[in-house]
Amino acid sequence: EAQVTQNPRYLITVTGKKLTVTCSQNMNHEYMSWYRQDPGLGLRQIYYSMNVEVTDKGDVPEGYKVSRKEKRNFPLILESPSPNQTSLYFCASSWTGKNSPLHFGNGTRLTVT
Amino acid sequence: KQEVTQIPAALSVPEGENLVLNCSFTDSAIYNLQWFRQDPGKGLTSLLLIQSSQREQTSGRLNASLDKSSGRSTLYIAASQPGDSATYLCAVRVYNTDKLIFGTGTRLQVFP
């Protein structure tokens, strides 16, 4: 089944403790991206990647890192999480064609205390 | 800077009604506009994608239109059903970048 898989689904951590949220897709998509969703603000793009070893900042990249060493994986790294990074995070992928629809994972709910 | 607005923020209708959800954007330089559905606790599911050169797209009971010059798109849902209850989001793919800008969504409830 074609899908985007994020892990974990839920994560509670403390300020400053490094964490990684994994994202994997099995559709051989070149394009992958990360979003956070907050009440009243909608989805905002954090980082995106056009292909292996190619990443670029979205609208809210501060406090996040990404890497794209393999086509199928696009982990999101929070080196020193803070409470304002408490949010619902989504990974998505698509073909690189500008008119390719996005496929989303089921989300990761992160709480930083 | 591109901004996307969706009105209304919430909508509650009886089953069987035809309804229209609105999406507006401030910059017409886009590749496409995409409509998504989000169910509670789930990710987003792509419903329709309208390329900038197109005027509308249809899938089953859904019809989406795009008026790029006026910065507007509508999602028309015919004969609504309780299973249509979800949050509907629109997003534009910004021209000359690979960024997607989302609206804040319309939360739809269809009651029997």
Would you kindly provide a written description of the structure presented here, covering whatever features stand out?
The complex is a heterodimer of chains A (113) and B (112). Chain A has strands spanning 4-7, 10-13, 19-25, 31-38, 42-51, 54-57, 65-66, 76-78, 87-94, 103-104, 108-112. Helices cover 0% and strands 50% of the residues of chain A. In chain A, a hairpin with an 8-residue loop joins strand 9 and strand 10 (103-104). Chain A is globular, with a radius of gyration of 13 Å. Chain A is an all-beta fold and 113 residues long. With 112 residues, chain B is mainly β. Helices cover 0% and strands 60% of the residues of chain B. In chain B, strand 7 and strand 8 (72-77) form a beta hairpin. The N and C termini of chain B lie far apart (41 Å). The mean pLDDT of chain B is 94. The chains are: A mainly beta (113), B mainly beta (112). Chains A and B meet through strand 4, strand 5 and strand 10 of A and strand 4, strand 5, strand 9 and strand 10 of B.
SSE arrangement:
The complex is a heterodimer of chains A (113) and B (112).
Chain A: E1 4-7, E2 10-13, E3 19-25, E4 31-38, E5 42-51, E6 54-57, E7 65-66, E8 76-78, E9 87-94, E10 103-104, E11 108-112
Parallel strand pairs in A: 2-11
Antiparallel strand pairs in A: 1-3, 3-8, 4-5, 4-9, 5-6, 7-8, 9-10, 9-11
Chain B: E1 4-7, E2 10-14, E3 19-25, E4 30-38, E5 44-51, E6 56-59, E7 62-67, E8 72-77, E9 86-94, E10 100-102, E11 106-111
Parallel strand pairs in B: 2-11
Antiparallel strand pairs in B: 1-3, 3-8, 4-5, 4-9, 6-7, 7-8, 9-10, 9-11
Alpha-carbon distance between the two ends of chain B: 41 Å
Flag low-confidence runs of chain A. none
Class from secondary-structure proportions of chain B: mainly beta
State the end-to-end CA separation of chain A: 36 Å
Helical content band of chain A = under 10%
Using the CA coordinates, give the radius of gyration of chain B.
Answer: 13 Å
What percent of the residues of chain B sit in helical stretches (DSSP H or I)? under 10%
